[in-house]
Each structure stands twice: as structure tokens, then as C-alpha cells.
Amino acid sequence: MNNPIPGSVDLPVPEGKVFPRNLTARADYAVRGNPSGSRPESGVDNCFPGLEFDQRNLDKAFFPGLLFDFHHFRGSRLIRVTEGDPAVLDLTNADLGAGTESDPWRLHLWAVCGRTTVDQTEAQAPVFHATERSGLALWRRVHDLLPGRIAILLGPTPGSESPGANIVPGGLNSWRTQNRITVQRGDDGRVEAAVLIADRAAYLDPDGVIDPEVYLPGDLTRSLCAPWQYDFRECGCYYWAASKPDISASPDGRFRPLNFQRADRSTPPPLDTPNIAQRGPLELDHPELITNWNVLPVVLNGREDDALGPGAPFELREMSREEVIARLEHLADVEHALCLEYLYAHYSLNAPAVLAPGTNPQSPVARFHAAAAEVFSVAVDEMRHLRWVNEALGVLGRPLKLDPPPPDLVIQEQTGQVFELKPLTAGQLDWFIRVEKTSDQLDLDGIDGMYVRLHHTVVERPDLFPQSDRLAHLIKLIIDEGVDHYERFRAVKGHLAEFAEEEYLRRFDKTPDALDQRLLDLADLNYAVLLGTMRQTLELGDRAGGVLIEHARRAMNNLHEVNHLLASRGVAPRFRLPQSGATALADGQATLAAARAARQAQETIGSLDGAELSGMMIRHRATTEALIADLIL
Questions:
Q1: 423 or 277: whose pLDDT is higher?
Q2: Are the C-beta atoms of residues 263 and 280 closer than 8 Å to each other?
Q3: What is the pLDDT of residue 40?
Q4: Alpha carbons 136 and 76: distance in angstroms, whole number
């Protein structure tokens, strides 16, 4: 039975297996429509599962007349003999054994000798012992063998337990250079040792393609992802080809990071360890993953959740083109307003910007920080939604809607809820949960429901929307993220449920002093820069090359840090444009003027006492100067 290692397979294939008998293995040309990587010489040369082919299956025929298996932990087995080939002497398939408990494999590769680099002389050809090496480790040596004369030593015990070439008098390379070969048998006729010498086998036939007489169709890929759990288990943390998450969070977000493949599935779950050497023993091993793969949950937006199911169908009324445009223009204001409401609520929580390492995840400060992180992540999403809605307006040929939302904006028409910046009280949190409810839970009355109607109309009426594919894609992005917002705010409610409002809310009752006023003015300038760079990147489209949208992100980060500082000083953020810039979003020159004013404010504030404040202003000034340079260009 195989050890649970990557790519572990039993070879040879049992009799009676059906093989494909096609001609693709004989193709000496690039098949039209196939990518270059579909040909072995252009594939990723890697023996592990998940890539184009398993290199071990190519090197199995490295010695003429013999086939080896490099997939076993205890070494490489000889699995087939081409009887009559002069290189194999009197060896036959009867010498191999059936691979069963009563008749185990009788011949294994104990050692191999041959040149592996061009600067080696024949006398310097290294000997690679199979002792204490797995099949994979020995294959790495075989793979390095150059064309030319090679020698191998075969023996009856697994190579990892063998003496290697130490039993060869004078050394295996001496036998290779003297072309000394032998097969030694015991009294019962079984092979006790064999030294064979030949030129390293070529894999290509005279036409220059993989030899179809040696490699049947499917041979090179037969051990890829077989079974799929092996590849699932071995694609390590952040590996680019992994088809699974590496780390996740609990459904309510309280516990993170979690090892997705952890063996301990108890509640509360144990947190992941960053030490890769310690992770392996805590994970489901290969047999456990094959048997218990169904315990692994679905992960949506970074959280483990098997509870979500299909929603109930509902009737949708198509809208006219004018209604779609009017709805998108309204939603641009709504997304902007919600972003500001969520940011204000985030700053109102008495939580640190960064949680100190080693903090108990069940402590009040950790719970407050977790709640604040959830609210902030939703606010960031709303800023993306604001961008996507404006992209949709641009596709429809309408002006952008990026100005600050009007103070009397009605966010939810059914309840008459208006835009208002308020701390995250229990009532405000309930309002956030209500407005973010998914369409199947609020009969299309929530924000998500508005987008569902839009998406339905755009998809069903391509005659009204020539660029319906682009519009539908943008709207679908917003719908998909909106589902997660409802769950995130429910998680916030769970984080704060055990505490009174006065325990987790800050008091915004301080009269701003001179420094506070300077920080408020700087926040206004950052807000203007953020909206101005967003406007310009949307107006320029592909011509912006992604430069200005990156500056918008940096301006948002600067605004976030300044507002966090103000909140920690008991001053409420205000989210307004500079008093002198009522038309600050009119053109790029106005944005440039706001950026220059922000740089001057950063210099003034950075000159004040306090290393932490000065350091923050130095960082902000660097990003602002980079923006000014790009705006000038």
C-alpha cells in the first residue's frame, strides 16, 4: 500500500484497464488552437501534481529496457523489463514480483552513476545512493543525468533501506568506466544484485516527438491530482496553483486566522499558527483528507459558511432606460452616503487602529477592534461601489456623480431614512443591517434589491443598452459584495452584544483646539483629493493607466489615518470639502490645488511636537508629493 505522499500511485496499471489509442502522442507539429504549454517541451518542468505533466513519468524509462516507479516513499521500484533487450542481460518480468503482500516487489533501484554536469570528466561521474532516499529524492538525481554512459545497481530490498552502491567492489563508477555488468542470483534463482550499464535512454523517437512505443497516451499526466485530495493537501500556503483557501475565519468573523485544513474541527476553533513547520501536524493528513473531505466548509469572502442556500424566486419588473439612469444617479449618492455613515460609525468605536500582538481574542478590546474592522471593510467596499456606479453612468454617457451627498438625501425610500452621520449605537447598527439586507430577505426593498432590478433590466433589454455586458458586469460586482455586507454587520452585532454602548463608544464632545482644527482642515483637503482623483481617473479611463486610482487609494488611507487621530482626540470627523473649494471637483487644476494645500498643511502639522504625529505627516507628504508630480505631468 502506498504511503500518503504527493502523486502516490500504484504502478503498473492493472490488466484490463482501457487505454486511449489516439494519435496525439505522435503529433510532430503544434496543434492549432492548443497553447504552447500543451507540448511537453514547453510545459512546466515539475514533478508535483497540478501542473502540465509529471516529470517522473518521463524519467521512468531513463534506462533502456527498464521502467521504474519514482512515486513511492521507500524508494524506486523496477516495474517492467523489456525481455531480450541486450542492456538487461537475463532479467525478466518474473524477477519483479506481483507487488502483493505474499509476493512483494523484488527489485529496486539501489544506486545510479553518471555525469550530471558538462564540466565533469568520466572519472568524476558521481554515484547517487538510494539509501535513506525516497523515490522522489532519488528521481531528482536521475533527472540530472546527462546523455551518455550510465550504470545502475539493482537489489531486492527497498532502496531507502539498501546499502546503496557500497556493496560494489571498487566502486560503481569503476564498473561503469570498465563496462562491467552482472546479474547475481541466489540458490533459489532470485536476483540478489545486478549491475547494468547502457547509454541513458532518449525519450524522443526519430521524428523528434515523445516516443509512442515507450509512452502510451496519458502516461505523462497519469499521476496528476490523483486523487484530487493529494493536490489539495500539498498546495501549500499562498501557492499560486492552490484551488483552496489557506486561511479563513469563522462564520461570525470572531476567530481568525483559521487553518482551513485543520484536523481539530471543535468549537471554538483553534487559531492558525504562522510557523509552517508546526502547521503540518495540525492539518488533516492525506488519508484523513480522502476520507473526511466533506468536513471542509464552503468559504465565502474569507469566512467558513455552509449555511447559505439558493434564494426564493421573485417577480421582477423591467425598467425603462430613463429609469435605469435615474436609479443609478440616485444610487451614486446613496453609496457615497453609506460610505461616510459607515466610516463615521467606525471612528466612533473605542478601538485601536491596530491590535497589539498577543491580545486575547476574547478580551473587550479585541472584540471592539473586530467590530471596527468589519465596519471599515464594508466602508471600503462602498467606496468601490461608488466607483463602479460611476463607471456604469459613464458607459451610459451620463455625467459622473461624485460630489458629497446632499444632507437631505433619502437613502431608503420605503422607510424615509435620510443620510446622517451618527455613532454606532444599537439603533444605528440595526439600520445598517436593515439597509444591507439581501433582496430575498427584504422583497427587493434594500440596496441590494435596487441593483437586482437594474441587473435584470440590463440583461433582458440589450436593445436599450448596447453595452449591456459591461453594465451587467459592473452591477453584478456590487450585488455580490452586498451579500457579504449584511453578514458582516450581523457579525458586528455579535461582537458588541455583551457590552453597553458607553463601554465601546467614544465621546465626540470635545471643542476642537488649534491642532484639531488643523487636522480637520487637512482631512477636508484629503477628502477633496480623494474625490478629485477618482473623478479624473474615471474621466480619463484607460488613458489614466491606473495611476490616479492608486493615488485615490492613498488619499483615502491618509484621510483614514487623520480621522482616526481626530477620533482618538474626541473630535468627530466631518467629511466635507474645503470651504474655499466649493467647485474643488470641477477639473484637475482644482485637485492639484487641493493637493498642494494638503502638502503645506502636512508640513505645518509635521513641525509640531510629537514623533508619532511627525512620522505620519512625513508619510502622507511623500504620497501627496507623488500625486502632485503625476498631476503636473
A1: 423
A2: no
A3: 54
A4: 8
